[in-house]
Every structure is written in C-alpha cells, then in structure tokens.
Amino acid sequence: MLDYNLEKRGEASLYEYVYQQIRDDIVAGRIAAGEHLPSKRAFASHLGISVITIENAYSQLLAEGYICSMPRRGYYACELPDAPVLPLVTGDIDRDAASVDPSAHDADGQAGRFDALSPSALEAARLWQSALRATLTSEDEREIFSTAPAQGTARLRRAIAHHLRGTRGMNVDPDNIVIGAGAQLLDTMLVQLLGADKVYAVEDPGYLRLTRIYQAMGCKVRHIPLDDEGVDLNTLQKAGADVLHLMPSHQYPTGLVTSIARRYALLSWAAEQPGRYLIEDDFDCEFRLAGKPIPALASIDAAQSVIYTNTFSKSLSSALRLAYMVLPDELMERFRHNLGFYASSVSSVDQVALARLLESGDYERHVNRVRVRAREARDGLAALVRKAFPAGEVSIEHEDAGLYCTVVAERGTDGSSFAQALTRSTIPFVDISECYWCADGASVPENSSQILVQYDDLSPKVLNTLELQLIGALCNLSE
User: Regarding predicted confidence, which is higher, 213 or 82?
Assistant: First the structure.
C-alpha cells in the first residue's frame, strides 16, 4: 500500500498532494510500469482521507496519462519512455488565477477555427477599453509612446513570465520571450529562424491554415495522424520531419490531450538529432474545466527543444494582435542576431495595457468568469444530449479539456439529427471531417460524425432553442 505523509503537503490541497506524490513516484520508477494502484476506497481508508480526494487525484493522473484504467480491474501505472526532462513542478499552480490565451491562431470563417468567446466579447471589450484608458491617463508617456524593442517591452515580457510560472509551471526568462502581432506572424518568424529548408510536420486532423502558412514560406509539410495518445510516432519517425507543430494540451479540433508517455516520446524524438524542434501551440490550456491544467510540454523540456507559443487575442478580442513565443537559448541568440532588426509589430500602448491587466489580476478574473460560464454550458449540453439520446447514440468527448467539446454521433442512427438541429440553429460548429488534409490521403472516419461545439456559444436560451429544434428533427425521422 502506498504511504504518504500528508503533514508535508504544505499549502497544497489533499488531492493535489496525493496526485503529486504518485506522479513523482511513477516518474522516478518507485511505482513500476504496469503496477496496480490501490483501490480508491482502500487507499482512502489507509491515508485517513475521503474517497473523493483519491478519486480526484486518480482522475488528474488519468487525464495526464500517468495511469490507465481497466474496467473492473482498477488503475495501473503507465510506462514512460526515457527522455531528457526537467523535474516536475511540485508546488501548486494557481488554478483560480489562470491567465488564459484560448486560441493560438485567428478565425476568418475558414473551417478549422471558430470565433471564440463570442458571448464574452462585450465584457472583454470593456475590460480592454478600461485598460487602455488607465494606460493613457496614468502611465508615463515616455513608456507608452516610445518604440518597443524587437522582442517587445520588458514590462510585458516580465508579466508574461510571471503568468507562465503561476499557470503553466514554466520557469521562463523574460529575455527569451518574443511578442508579436498574432500567431501567424510568429509562425512565419519561426520559419525564418529554423529555415525554410526544414520539413515541418503538423497534426491531421488539425488547423489547416498552418499547412498553408508553411507552404507559403516554401516549406515541405508532412501531415501526421493521431491515435488515442496524440501524434502517431511511427508516422512521425518515417516522415523525415525536422519540426513538429502540435497542440498537446487540447488538440484542435479533436480535443485530445497528449498523454505524458507520448510527451516523453516526442521529447526523445526531438533530442535524437540536432536541429529538431517541437512547436507547442498551447491554446485553451488554462480553461480545463475539471482538475488542474495539463502541464505544458515546455515545462518538462530539459533539452531546450520546445518552442512555446500562445496568444491573448481570443481571450480578449480577435481584433487585438497580441501573441508571444518562448524561445530556447540557442534560438533566442539567433533571433537577436538575424531578426533583431525588426521593429516591434505591437504598439507600446497595447503592450503596457496588457501588462497592466496581467499585473492587476483583472485578466485572471475575466478568465475565471468565462470558465464558470463554460462549465454551465458544458453541463447544459450534456443534459440535453442525455435527454434526447438516452440510448447513447450521441456522446460527448473531451468535455473537460477546454472551451469546446467533440460531439460524436453514430452514423445510421438518430444521432444524425443532432447535426441537423445544429445546422438549423445559430450555433456555429465545425465538422471535424473538414479538418483533414485529404491531399495526403488522410482517412476520415466513416462510422461516426464528429462535430466540434464551443461552450461559449451555448447560453441557456440557445440551448433551449436547440432542444426544440432537436425534438423537431427527431420527430421528422420517426415519421
């Protein structure tokens, strides 16, 4: 039986402490791969804590891929490949003060992205207006109207570094952060840094604009399919890729979370040859609706092979071009030498205003309000699906991973009525079959229909309308 001294947990909650101890034991090999973990009830009784505490700890370990569950047999430790990794964060990440950057790219109506946070857009606009007014009236004019350096203002880079430490467990040097006017600009800068002669791999299904960006820069692109744990390693190894662009904490559009074992394997792949890199697109990460945020891939990268990218555009407004990347030391030196001549693509006024939001906590409070609404929408959608399809012909997957879920309807059943009802409604959705790069012969699943639905588009009024439309669609099918 595992035995942990709960008096040593410090300020961590009970479930977080138990989760951390089991996680560290699995990483260190003290819990062997395949070892059976104690049952929740027996473990709780042994430690003298509630079963729900153990259940929450196991759920987080399961979500991150440290353990697996076997029906009627319990939980087992997963095998972790050898990889150059950093010690895992043992302190508590501030779950309630999570600053969030929901989407690493911009929507323009193209299938493969959506207009995030639309019901919250007015609130975000007012928040930004307030920050701008305060910046213009109270900040030093020499700071807000001076020319920002190529990397961005030191103040915003410090605020982002602090934000990443608290929300993603990353110890980031502000000097390694580069601010840019949108993720697309940063993607093109990365090609300039890494070289257009490299072979770039992207997830399939995925964000199709990434392919077009890389192709427009003259790069060769490979499309890598996904399995249940993330990017398929066999295909990646055969693709001859030098750079892999992935979304490990909440893949678009499937919602898949890359397991910890696959993360270790990807770090090993990157470390096998000099010049290989992983571009971590960390959109939507802090909006996880259950448990702790999934740790960033960059937070365990010991070989400095991960380039971390994120944006603030979607959490505030798609009109704001505010993105950033964290470069490994070698690439940061290359940036200064080769790209340091660029003028900053984001105004100093906007950078100072964003820094104020991060420093004051106003940004975190805005994000927390959005998260609460997302949970309510998730619960409403789940209740609607259970009510309309009690036989389970429609199901929701990855419902806790972020601001959207995947609705799966079995073909040849009444489940197709859900897609029909969505089509008649005002709810924007994405057909995941449209997110495959079919030019590479990707096989689109034929036995089910998979639809991406974003929570922020699901107000109670909209859900009520959807229910009525769904009832009508079901009635038409029964006639």
Answer: 213
